[in-house]
Specification:
six-stranded mixed beta sheet; 213 residues; four-stranded antiparallel beta sheet; single chain; alpha+beta
Length: 213
């Protein structure tokens, strides 16, 4: 479905999924998503690095702050000591949200960026950080060096972990209650990684919560 040409989301759509967009969204697409949400729509955004400024700006009004970074994790390997990886393994989940309540399994998030609730919200909007990486991870702001040279080092411009990488929201709007989940990566749900650890179970939890009543 091309939102830029249809200008609206079908009324019977159970969920809008935007996974790994490679081009900035256009104004008519944002307008269509907004109208869909106002009628109680459900949206899942999977936003891997590098940056997508149009979506970042759009999400701030929905109580989300998407970082221009890549989460790096220190990995301890037998006989070779610590090394750096961009496939953080996650074991920390919010126990105050239906998506992750009671979820304690390990998942893997290759090429993921930070996604955090903003401090400024509005009446009727509730946001929750769903997933955090470990305390040995950090949000690396020098994305060009990671992609260009495969190197990363913690410095003053980076943020020490735990790092929030997914946020869920509910919003009481004009004609219904909207739901949205934003994840700082999309590879965790692709064909390669969906079978790793408990990625499938977590992705299904997200989907079921969005489309459920």
């Amino acid at each position: 479905m091309l939102l830029s040409s249809t200008r609206r989301v079908p009324k019977d759509a159970s969920l809008v999924l935007i996974a790994g967009p490679v081009k900035p969204l256009l104004d008519p697409e944002f307008e269509a998503i907004d109208e869909y949400l106002k009628t109680g729509g459900k949206v899942m955004l999977l936003l891997p690095p590098p940056d997508n400024n149009t979506l970042n700006s759009y999400l701030k009004k929905w109580g989300r702050n998407v970082g221009s970074n890549v989460v790096v994790n220190q990995v301890i390997r037998l006989f070779s000591g610590p090394s750096l990886g961009i496939q953080p393994i996650v074991e920390t989940y919010s126990q105050d949200h239906p998506v992750t309540q009671g979820f304690k399994e390990r998942t893997i998030f290759p090429m993921v960026r930070s996604v955090e609730p903003t401090t400024k919200t509005w009446k009727g909007l509730e946001t929750t950080s769903l997933i955090e990486t470990s305390a040995t991870s950090w949000a690396e702001s020098d994305v060009d060096t990671i992609f260009g040279q495969g190197k990363a080092s913690m410095d003053k411009d980076d943020v020490q972990g735990p790092i929030s990488i997914a946020v869920g929201l509910t919003a009481k709007l004009r004609d219904g209650n909207a739901k949205m989940i934003v994840v700082g990566g999309s590879s965790f749900a692709n064909n390669k990684f969906i079978k790793e650890f408990f990625n499938r179970a977590l992705f299904l939890n997200m989907t079921n919560w969005l489309i459920g009543n």
